[in-house]
Design a protein that fits this description.
73% helix; 86 residues; elongated; mainly alpha
Length: 86
């Protein structure tokens, strides 16, 4: 009987904990605060991306081409045509 009493007491404790947890979930969460925080985070990420893009565009590594790029495509086509039987 003592074991049954302990099991019942444990079950009551678990039930009370579940109900207490349910009360917390039932509380109304102000979504406007969450939405405002999300907007701040999104704006922060977007401004960092813009800053990074502007830094990349103003970099010394980015230069205007001074000539026409030469392609070795003709040479590659010639090499391939030698391998293919006529």
């Amino acid at each position: 009987m003592e074991a049954m009493a302990e099991a019942t007491a444990d079950a009551c404790d678990v039930d009370d904990a579940i109900r207490a947890g349910g009360m917390v979930v039932d509380n109304v969460i102000d979504e406007s605060e969450l939405e405002a925080e999300l907007k701040v985070l999104v704006n922060d990420v977007e401004s960092r991306e813009k800053r990074g893009m502007l830094e990349a565009l103003s970099s010394d590594r980015l230069r205007t081409p001074t000539g026409i790029p030469r392609s070795n495509g003709d040479e590659q086509l010639e090499n391939v045509s030698r391998l293919v039987p006529s």
